[in-house]
Specification:
Layout: H1 3-24, H2 35-42, H3 53-63, H4 86-98, H5 109-125, E1 133-137, H6 140-155, H7 159-162, E2 170-175, H8 181-188, E3 196-199, H9 209-221, E4 225-232, H10 244-254, E5 257-261, E6 286-289, H11 291-294, E7 302-306, H12 344-378, E8 383-385, E9 393-398, H13 405-422, E10 428-432, E11 435-441, H14 449-470
Parallel strand pairs: 2-3, 2-4, 4-5, 5-6
Antiparallel strand pairs: 1-7, 6-7, 8-9, 9-11, 10-11
Length: 471
């Protein structure tokens, strides 16, 4: 494919994307909740001969485009997935065009150097300039895994050669609201989920520090090896923020590695009204943040931040010989990855184009919008709002005192299903205190008050339909 052909194909692709973008604002944002529909549309014919790009694009338009959810739409309020931005999307094309692989410094010097630069920028963005070292990863799950990996490298360097054989089990501590990626990391690192201590939370869904200390003391008396404590700077369920200063004190008292999961919430530390909530995070050993969430970068872009990176892998094969090891940064000497995509480029584009102040204003606006949503829903009789929503997540549920708890529970479960099946908005459900709640996350700077009002109307209509059926 020569450059002139590439230009023609780009123009054709852009026309299709632009047409779809304009039409999608009036269509559901969830295109199907039936796997059979998607599989039927895709078919399973194996491609053996080449076809023209025009035909490839037509097949994309028929088989794939109709099923792409509108995750960038202001009606999207599910999980914690950032809206991305179009500048970042353009950077993704440039990245793919040049096909850089950061497996070694000399294979793509700019990929290695730009990664270290944007890590410094991210640390400055969240007011933690001393955390100037780190690694870009695919997402918060991998970043949490890496944070725990570095804790082991620092506290038990013998692991590299001897593993965990004949060792007393290490224990890890977090609240019962901590992201499930920590459970998975316990498995992948060979620590075992039985040795993850999930501590109860208070009414604000923050870790109970006194119970945490008791758990550590009990493990010490029983011969376990406490390894690390994990704090939350914005939980997935409610956006709650642990007492990070108190956790820092506990980590220091028991000589534990202190890791903070700020994958979602950490950018809010830039806001004066929330700064106090993040006090103590500067005492952490490792911190994670996902630029693809509240920095609005396109997927995938997460980051582990550290003051110093413990050397965890002390060997390198001959074919990965490094010249000037003191000058050339080799991320492969610290992680499981060798091949490494050029994630730094879209972060660089996003931060250059918007700047820290505008990104901060976007975060503030998301919080304002979730507060507006809470006020609108609170005016609706029999809807119970979870009062703790410090960031941009809101949990609420139908709670009619004239119905049984089982009937209310059924309405909330069915509401989540109905909203997904209609596809006009996208929100999810979760469990708090044993009950089903509907949960909304806002992370899109293009959202307006009108969008919020439309979401509330959709929610009200679903509740009305379900309660009429009960009556």
């Amino acid at each position: 494919m020569n450059l002139s052909e590439t230009k023609i194909f780009l123009d054709q692709t852009w026309r299709l994307l632009a047409q779809n973008e304009e039409a999608s604002f009036e269509s559901p944002i969830l295109k199907s909740n039936d796997p059979r529909n998607v599989k039927t549309a895709l078919g399973n014919e194996f491609p053996t001969t080449n076809i023209s790009f025009e035909n490839v694009l037509k097949e994309f338009e028929l088989q794939i485009l109709p099923f792409l959810n509108r995750n960038t739409d202001a009606r999207f309020g599910a999980y914690i997935t950032g809206s991305g931005n179009r500048v970042s999307a353009l950077a993704e094309f440039i990245k793919a065009f040049f096909n850089q692989n950061g497996l070694k410094w000399n294979n793509s010097p700019i990929a290695s150097e730009l990664e270290q630069l944007v890590i410094k920028w991210i640390a400055e963005f969240v007011k933690l300039p001393e955390f100037s070292k780190g690694i870009l990863t695919s997402g918060g799950s991998m970043s949490n895994l890496m944070g725990m990996h570095f804790a082991l490298a620092k506290r038990f360097p013998e692991r590299e050669m001897v593993g965990f054989y004949d060792q007393q089990p290490f224990t890890v501590y977090c609240s019962n609201q901590t992201h499930s990626s920590v459970d998975r990391a316990m498995v992948f690192l060979g620590l075992g989920r039985n040795h993850l201590r999930k501590i109860d939370v208070n009414d604000r869904f923050e870790i109970d520090v006194s119970q945490l200390k008791k758990s550590i003391e009990t493990d010490l008396s029983n011969g376990f090896k406490p390894l690390m404590v994990i704090g939350n700077a914005g939980t997935t369920n409610t956006g709650s923020i642990d007492d990070l200063k108190a956790l820092a004190d506990v980590a220091k008292e028991f000589d534990l590695w202190y890791h903070v999961d700020g994958a979602y919430g950490l950018p809010a530390s830039r806001l004066a009204r929330l700064k106090e909530k993040f006090e103590g995070i500067e005492q952490a050993d490792s911190v994670i943040i996902n630029p693809h969430k509240w920095m609005y970068v396109t997927f995938e872009a997460s980051c582990v931040l550290l003051k110093e990176i413990p050397h965890a892998i002390n060997f390198s094969p001959d074919y990965l010989f490094t010249e000037d090891p003191g000058l050339r940064w080799e991320s492969s000497e610290h992680t499981i990855e060798l091949s490494k995509e050029f994630r730094a480029l879209k972060i660089w584009f996003t931060m250059k184009y918007y700047g820290a102040e505008q990104l901060t204003s976007f975060v503030s606006q998301d919080i304002d919008m979730i507060d507006y949503l809470a006020r609108l829903l609170a005016d609706y009789p029999k809807v119970e709002i979870e009062p703790e929503h410090p960031l941009s997540i809101l949990c609420f549920r139908w709670n009619d005192p004239n119905l049984t708890s089982e009937e209310n529970e059924t309405i909330n479960i069915e509401a989540v299903r109905s909203i997904e099946s209609k596809g006009n908005i996208f929100i999810t459900g979760t469990k708090l205190r044993g009950s089903t709640y509907l949960r909304v996350y806002y992370g899109n700077p293009e959202r307006t008050r009108e969008n919020v009002e439309e979401m509330v109307l959709e929610i009200k209509n679903v509740f009305n339909e379900l309660t009429e059926a009960v009556a």
